[in-house]
């Protein structure tokens, strides 16, 4: 039986006519009368608002129907060293990875693809990097951004760029973007400002076998970031270890008394040690200070007893000095009175006056001489 079918294709659509499962032609908008005969016809429609042609016949059309592809589609074929920037109506919507082979319907949406040579360099041009940053603020995001590494370096910092495991260069403050296709890209932020490091809870034994616990604080900065990371895997960890070694060298070679008498000796020794050790690695220590020196409980008690004994001895020396001075003064007074009876008499009267101040009532018999030489009755 012979059959005729009527197919309607909308203005915003395209259709593929398949006869017995094989591609026959592309149907544009309008009404189409299709003579089927004894064949089986199938029509598949596609909305032009979605320009990407994702169909099993895409490879066949590119290989066997070049005229149809040229008339109906935008053809994209990227090599292994190329990436693509796909725009729709002038707006970037997708980043195509290397090796992409796709077809996009022509007509309703103006699709364009900018081909980028990945061998020209890993870094994206500044204009393109800024464009990608701006697209993140749009309601419709760009797909395929996982193929681009975007880096924002804050002020006061830099970034160490590593490509395929090799340090490439330093990135200054600002926005940067790099292709990740075909290469391994890594970025590590490095603070160029003064940084602090704490070395806490270090148990160290002095030369006279006294165990101390010390907490040290230091500040440092990078003077040559490339040299530091070229020679050291983790410069901050190397700095911490060197501070530990310097602290042990300062404490372990001195007695407890030496450390207590000169508390800045640790700072001076550590500073000198670090200056020599860090200079070849592009780092410098700006300041070092011991925050705490914690003694064991037994040693605290012993030191307390020592301090008490020292203070007691000083007090005894002062007391003996004052007693000697008082005795010498009494001796001088006695010599004066021995040679001067009037002075002796005045001293007696002064003594009597002091006694009278403490007594409510005095009874005197026999005149003033009796008060001084005789009986004094006090009530």
Automatic annotation (TrEMBL):
This is Band 7 domain-containing protein. It comes from Delftia tsuruhatensis. Pfam families: Band_7 (PF01145). Transmembrane segments: none annotated. Signal peptide: none annotated. It is a single-pass membrane protein. Its main location: membrane. Residues 148-307 form the Band domain. InterPro entries: Band-7_stomatin-like, Band_7, Band_7/SPFH_dom_sf, Stomatin_HflK_fam. Coiled coil: none annotated. It is found in: Membrane. Belongs to the band 7/mec-2 family.
């Amino acid at each position: 039986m012979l059959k005729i079918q009527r197919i309607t294709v909308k203005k915003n659509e395209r259709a593929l006519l398949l006869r017995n499962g094989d591609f026959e032609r592309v149907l544009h908008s309008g009404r189409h009368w299709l003579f089927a005969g004894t064949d089986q016809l199938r029509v598949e429609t596609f909305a032009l608002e979605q320009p990407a042609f994702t169909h099993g016949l895409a490879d066949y059309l590119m290989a066997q129907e070049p005229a149809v592809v040229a008339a109906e589609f935008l053809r994209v074929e990227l090599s292994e060293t190329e990436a693509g920037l796909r725009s729709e109506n002038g707006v970037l919507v997708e980043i195509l990875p290397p090796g992409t082979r796709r077809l996009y319907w022509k007509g309703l949406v103006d699709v364009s693809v900018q081909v980028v040579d990945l061998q020209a360099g890993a870094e994206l041009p500044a204009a393109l990097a800024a464009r990608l940053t701006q697209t993140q603020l749009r309601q419709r995001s760009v797909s395929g951004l996982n193929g681009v590494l975007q880096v924002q370096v804050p002020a006061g910092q830099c970034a160490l760029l590593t490509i395929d495991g090799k340090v490439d260069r330093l990135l200054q403050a600002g926005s940067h973007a790099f292709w990740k296709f075909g290469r391994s890209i890594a970025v590590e932020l490095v603070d160029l400002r003064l940084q602090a490091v704490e070395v806490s809870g270090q148990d160290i034994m002095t030369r006279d076998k006294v165990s101390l616990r010390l907490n040290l604080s230091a500040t440092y900065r990078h003077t040559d970031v490339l040299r530091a990371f070229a020679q050291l895997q983790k410069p901050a960890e190397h700095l911490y270890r060197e501070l530990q070694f310097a602290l042990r060298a300062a404490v372990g070679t001195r007695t407890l008394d030496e450390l207590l008498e000169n508390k800045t000796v640790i700072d001076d020794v550590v500073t000198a040690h670090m200056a020599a050790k860090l200079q070849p690695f592009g780092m410098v220590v700006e300041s070092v200070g011991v925050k705490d020196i914690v003694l064991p409980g037994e040693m605290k008690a012993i030191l307390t007893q020592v301090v008490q004994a020292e203070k007691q001895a000083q007090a005894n020396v002062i007391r003996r000095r004052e007693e000697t001075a008082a005795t010498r003064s009494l001796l001088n007074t006695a010599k004066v009175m021995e040679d001067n009876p009037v002075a002796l008499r005045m001293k007696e009267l002064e003594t009597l006056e002091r006694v009278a101040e403490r007594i409510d009532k005095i009874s005197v018999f026999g005149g003033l001489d009796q008060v001084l030489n005789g009986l004094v009755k006090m009530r």
